[in-house]
Amino acid sequence: MDFGIEGKWALVCAGSKGLGKGCAQALAGEGVNLVIMARGSEALEATAAELRALNGAIEVRAVAGDITTPEGRAAALAACPQVDILVNNAGGPPPGDFRDWDRAAWIKALDANMLTPIELIKATVDPMMARGFGRIVNITSAAVKAPIDILGLSNGARSGLTGFVAGLARKTVSRNVTINNLLPGPFDTDRLAATMAGAAKASGRPLAELMAERAAQNPARRFGTAAEFGAACAFLCSTQAGYITGQNLLMDGGAYPGTF
Predict the structure, then answer these.
(1) Which strand (E) or helix (H) includes residue 134?
(2) Rounded-to-integer distance, Cα 59 and Cα 57, Å
(3) What's the confidence (pLDDT) of residue 94?
(4) What's the burial of 105, exposed, middle or buried (CB within 10 Å: 0-12/13-18/19+)?
(5) Are 39 and 62 in contact (CB under 8 A)?
(6) Where are the alpha helices (DSSP H) in the chain?
(7) pLDDT at 200
(8) CA-CA distance, 208 to 223, in Å (whole number)?
(9) Least confident segment among 2-6, 43-47, 151-155, 216-220
C-alpha cells in the first residue's frame, strides 16, 4: 500500500531511540523527510545516519536538544521547513508514591507529557489546516487506559493530554488534519530494559529471568517491537487514515482485558 506521504516533512520528538526511532524508520521507509530531536547527540547522529542509509532519497535533519523546553521546541520547529506530520514523544516521569511528589515534580511531568505536546500542536496545527493536510500522533501510554498506581505522574499528565486531544481532534478533521494517540504497553526498548534492570537489582534475581517472566505474562507471550509500533504510527500518518481522529490505539499485546 502506498501511504501517500512521500515528500512530506515530519518532526519526530525523542527520535533517536526506542519507539520514537521506530516511528522515524517507518516514516523514512515511506519517503518522508525527517527532523528528529533528542537530548543525546551521539545516539541522535547515529540514528540520523541510519535513516539516511535506509532511504537515500529523503532529507534527515538531527537537532540535539530538550523538546520539553521552549528553546528546544523552537530549534526543532526552525529545522523543519513545514511540519506535515508531528510525532509527539517524551520519556515518562519516574514511578513512586504520590505522597512523595511535590508541586515541582507535578509541573515537570505536566511540562514533558502534556504541555509540550500541546505547545507543538499549537505551533503546527493551523498551518496544517491551511495546507489541507496534517497528521499528529502522540505517543502516550497504556497507563492512560489502565492506570498503574506507581505511575501517578504519568497517569495524570498523559490523561490530561488525552482529554485535550479528544476535543481538538473534532475541530481539525474537516481540514484533513487528524490527531490520534498511540498507547504502548511493554515494548522491547532501552527504557524497559532499564526498568527491569532496577527490578533485578532490587530482587537479586537475574535480569534475563525477570525479562522472560514479564514477557510470559503478556497474552502475546512477548514484548512489542519498535518496528511494529512505527508501522502503526506510519499508517495513522497516511492519507488512508484521514477518517481516523481523536482515537486511542492501544498496543499492548492484549494485556488490557476489557471490551472497550
Answers:
(1) strand 134-139
(2) 7
(3) 87
(4) middle
(5) no
(6) 18-29, 41-54, 70-79, 103-110, 116-131, 152-172, 190-203, 207-217, 226-236
(7) 82
(8) 13
(9) 151-155
Q: Sign of the CA dihedral 126, 129, 135, 141?
A: positive
Three-state DSSP class for residue 232: helix
From residue 232, alpha-carbon distances to 71, 91, 188, 196 in Å are 30, 19, 16, 25
Question: Any idea which residue has 500542536 for its cell?
Answer: 121
- Give 162's strand partners: none
Angle at 112 between CA 107 and CA 117, to 5 degrees: 120
pLDDT per residue as tens digits for the range 161-196: 999 999 999 999 999 999 999 999 999 988 888 878
Burial 174-198 (b: 16+ CB within 10 A, else e): ebbbbbbbbbbbbbebeebeeebee
Q: How far is CA 54 from CA 4, 24, 31, 212, 235, in A?
A: 18, 11, 10, 31, 18
What nine digits make up the cell of 13?
520528538
Radius of gyration of the chain (CA): 18
Cβ contacts of 31 within 8 Å, gap of 6 or more: 5, 6, 7, 55, 57, 58
Closest CA to 176 of 237, 118, 232: 237
For the chain, what is the largest distance between any 2 Cα atoms, rounded to a whole number of angstroms? 57
Say which DSSP state 224 is in: B
Q: Are strands 134-139 and 177-184 parallel, antiparallel or unpaired?
A: parallel
Per-residue DSSP letter, 85: E
Give the tens place of pLDDT for each residue, 55-114: 999 999 999 999 999 999 999 999 999 999 999 999 888 888 999 999 999 999 999 999
